[in-house]
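PROTEIN SPECIFICATION:
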Amino acid sequence: LRSADTLNRKDVFLVTKVDRISLGYQNTMNSIDSSLTNLGTDYIDLLLIHWPFCEQACDKEPGSWQDTWRAMEDLHRKGIVRNIGVSNFDVEQLTELLNITSVHPAAVQNHFDLFHQATEHVRQYVQGEWLSGEPCA
C-alpha cells in the first residue's frame, strides 16, 4: 500500500452513494457538497442512488429518486461526478429510469446472495440493456 502523501487522486476510483434520507434534488446537491468536503476531493468517479425510496429510516418527507437522478445528471454535466448509477432498483424502476434519463447509468448495483435470489431477473434485465451490473454482498 502507498502512503497517503504519495497517492495521487487520479489513481483512486472513488465511489459514494446518495443515502435514502437525501433523496430529492436539493437534498442530493447538499449531500454531494458535504461528501466532496469530507472526502477532500473536487470530483467523484461514481455516484449511486443507494435506495429508490426511504421507508422507516426517514423522519422527514424525502424527495423522489427521480429528482435525485436529475441532480446527478446536472452534477455529471458539470464534471463534479464522472459516472452515475443506481443501487437496489427493481426492473420497473430501471425501466422508468431508462425512459427519463439523458445520461445512461454507468452501473447498477444490487444485493445478490443465497438468500436474495429474486434479484436474478434484475441481473438479466441489466445485461439485456447493456448496463454494467455490479453485485454487492
